[in-house]
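Hi R.,

As promised on Friday, here is the backbone we talked about, encoded as structure tokens. Could you run it through your design pipeline when you get a chance and send me back a sequence?
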């Protein structure tokens, strides 16, 4: 994380001759394990970041996250309540971070971002009939419908099937319970070959989601989702894997952030957006509001949305208007402040 900040400064300043860009960051590392705490300190002392430790820019805290978080929030609020704060929560304990804690961070620090990171296969092994009650109690996730059903869910299919089930139920609970507003998630391939890491990003700022999504497309060979290409990638609308014949047959949709999926995404958006405008948004909607209302359930980037809307407007499948209600020329490009409206004569969707 610290290396990334240094690299970011260097990259931005390559083109600057005056007023260099600087990240005035503080770093808090929290771990209650004595040995881990000692090892981290030694690693930093032996690195080029050692001066930051001496200057107080790096704080090493031997504690649980729950015990330390209030002090950290207060320090950020005192410095600047609108400061951008990133919480990277490596969840090897699986049940150490609760819904209440996530809501607390996001409500007190509305410009913060939270990244949860799980070893997904280890989490699947941990979630059992024996542990599910304790897990729900500690994390406060609304997963009561899994009580008494975990073994039934896990017994069908291979590890990919189980990952899809985990993604379906946990992503649904996270987006419902955590109060962030905007989410993105990836399964990241483990460079050492064992399992996948599941990264879940949360923020109350849509721009943060769009940037995280762009990162997925940038590193397309390294990340996947068990999902489709359209506006309901995780089949959140009343979906149950146990009643999905394709799932029970071991047929999975896997979405990869690679060039072939870029074109597939554009095609699926072109099919689904007009249909959605005629239904859910039949009275018209700003492009920005449409994007914000649907982005949690698609792997599409902001740029892919705008490209698709531009194409649909050019083909008279949707209408773009300015804020005064004036219809734009068919060659106009979609922008966030414009208004979307369904055309009077939609195409026949089969």
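Update: got your reply. Pasting your designed sequence below so it's all in one thread:
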């Amino acid at each position: 994380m610290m290396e990334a900040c240094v690299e970011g400064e260097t990259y931005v300043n390559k083109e600057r001759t005056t007023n260099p860009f600087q990240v005035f960051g503080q770093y808090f590392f929290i771990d209650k394990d004595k040995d881990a705490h000692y090892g981290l300190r030694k690693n930093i002392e032996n690195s080029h970041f050692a001066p930051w430790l001496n200057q107080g820019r790096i704080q090493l805290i031997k504690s649980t996250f729950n015990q330390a978080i209030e002090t950290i929030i207060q320090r950020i609020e005192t410095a600047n309540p609108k400061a951008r704060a990133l919480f990277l929560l490596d969840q090897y304990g699986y049940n150490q971070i609760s819904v209440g804690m996530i809501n607390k961070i996001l409500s007190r620090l509305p410009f913060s971002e939270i990244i949860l990171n799980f070893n997904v296969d280890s989490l699947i092994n941990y979630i059992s009939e024996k542990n599910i009650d304790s897990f729900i109690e500690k994390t406060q996730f609304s997963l009561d419908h899994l009580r008494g059903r975990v073994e039934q869910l896990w017994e069908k299919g291979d590890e990919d099937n189980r990952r899809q089930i985990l993604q379906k139920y946990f992503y649904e609970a996270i987006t419902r319970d955590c109060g962030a507003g905007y989410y993105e998630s990836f399964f990241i391939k483990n460079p050492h070959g064992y399992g996948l890491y599941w990264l879940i990003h949360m923020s109350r700022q849509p721009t943060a989601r769009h940037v995280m999504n762009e990162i997925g497309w940038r590193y397309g060979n390294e990340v996947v989702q068990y999902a489709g290409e359209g506006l309901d990638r995780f089949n959140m609308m009343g979906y149950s894997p146990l009643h999905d014949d394709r799932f029970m047959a071991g047929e999975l949709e896997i979405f990869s952030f690679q060039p072939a999926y870029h074109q597939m995404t554009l095609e699926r958006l072109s099919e689904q957006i007009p249909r959605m405008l005629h239904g859910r948004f039949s009275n018209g909607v700003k492009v920005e509001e449409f994007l914000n209302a649907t982005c949690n359930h698609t792997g599409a980037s902001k740029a892919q949305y705008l490209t698709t809307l531009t194409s649909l407007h050019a083909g008279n499948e949707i209408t773009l208007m300015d804020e005064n209600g004036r219809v734009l020329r068919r060659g106009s490009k979609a922008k966030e402040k414009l208004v979307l409206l369904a055309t009077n004569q939609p195409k026949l969707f089969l």
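One thing I noticed while checking it: The longest strand covers residues 182-189.

Thanks again,
M.
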